[in-house]
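Course assignment 3, question 2. Fill in each field.
Student: A.L.
Task: Predict the tertiary structure for the chain below.
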Amino acid sequence: MNKKLVAITALLLSTSTFAAGLGQPIALPSAKVLPKGVRNFTYKGIITNPDQKFNGNGDNVVLADPLMKKITFGDMINGQYDPVDKGSLEQKMMAIGANEGTEMGETVGQINMSVQANVPIFALGLTKKHTLAIAVPVTRYSTNVATGVRHTNPGMIDALRQELSAETGSPLKSEEFDEKFGDPINAKLSEYNYEKLENENDTKLGDIKLVSKYKAFEGKKSAFTFVSALTLPTGKEVNPDKVVDIGGGDGQTDLELGFANDFYANKHITFTAAVSHTLQFADTVAKRVPFTHTSSLTPDVDRSTSRDLGDISKAELAAAWNFHGINLGAGYAIQYKQGDDYSGDQYEASRYELLKKDSVQNMQTLQVTAGYDTISLFRAGKFFAPMKVSVGHSRVLTGKNVVASPLTTIDFSMFF
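Answer field:
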């Protein structure tokens, strides 16, 4: 295979559900560039069904884990936004002989997601050393969410209901209690003016990426290429009024700088090492500002929250084998994202600090690819066009605060 006739698709598409951050690589790194004047069109389809994640302790948990919590009296008191309501509930707690650690029940939930990203990529060999490309991701997704509650202390629940009824001499307070305790998650969302949890299907434009690859050196045994990418804030962000949402992008500008070094073991085998660092520039964004470290749910929204997402560092190793158009490859990547920084002047500074929780991320992934190209056949006059079709699959080996579900890619490339 002509080593120069390859697609440049070393892009990152985040599959994070609840926050912008790390995503699995969707292509193996390469130092190759297009020949001068050669153009390449690539369609990349990305499929994943997020259902698991690595939490802040590195444990593999279901995506709905934040929805499954024990409900104690302390949680009920802390969940009261009005100081008068909080004090009243504390009095009821003492009246029925309970304390803040008394368990009342536990919320349960399930989240099923299906995500498909369609990424058309156009690349041009500007010179024999310099290639430019543009990628425009469009994400289609569906979500199915179910929530409920399991009552673990019915005796104490009845005692609290009776105490609430006795206070007013009418069943209004107890009816409100039954409504909230019958479906506490949706009741709290309604109280805080969130959108109701429901099944959803949607399509969103992602963050457009401009990629530049400049080959600084190429010899018989190796090649060295500088890689840079500018990510534009064209994608629709996660909706702050939704508890479960998939954003098309994170709404701010990124600049990725790095290099890729190819080592030619022989005419069929290439090893690649690549390193990059992504700068995420500060901006303002609408954020819900929590008032307790135990829950991110809050009625307070600051539409001009100052945000500086943590920078991302990445290192990759890959091996590629080609024999008469048959392509096989494997790669390992390790990534680290620094913590985010939030600030604002609408609420107390300590509350903005709570937004940093679980924003430090790391991820180690393993990726394999297999494909076939017609380039050698085209050069021999036995096929009408130089094309390439490949399939890739990646898995997260370990991580922290990242989605853990596997990801599959399907690529089609044409050179002209």
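Instructor remarks: The chain has seven helices and 21 strands. The two ends are 16 Å apart (CA to CA).
Grade: pending
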